[in-house]
What does this fold into?
Amino acid sequence: QVQLVESGGGSVQAGGSLRLSCAASGRIINNYAVGWFRQAPGKEREFVAAIRWRGDFTYYADSVQGRFTISRDNAKNTVYLQMNRLRTEATAVYCCAVDENPTWSGTRLSSAGEYDYWGQGTQVTVSS
It folds into this structure.
């Protein structure tokens, strides 16, 4: 079992930055994948970024490539999502998730159905 708790959401103006945290507890294995997803009102859940727990592999959605950075601190059992140059379309609830048996392809990592554990989410609001 893995428990996930997100934090760091808030309100920011377009062009600003936020850093989200995903604190994990329970049994974490180095080969697990941790993904960030977001869901805006009335829209489907959207993949944002993923990282291998040991930190040697990352993958981003095209829409955030170059502006968002996913990283981890194994000592703190925490994965971060640094979001820079935020746009209004980034407004959403952001959730982190763990895939216990990941397939390291973009298609599989970006599929919410591949993930086994989910946090409750944190709200990000970007205003113009």
Summary: The first strand starts at residue 2 and ends at 7.
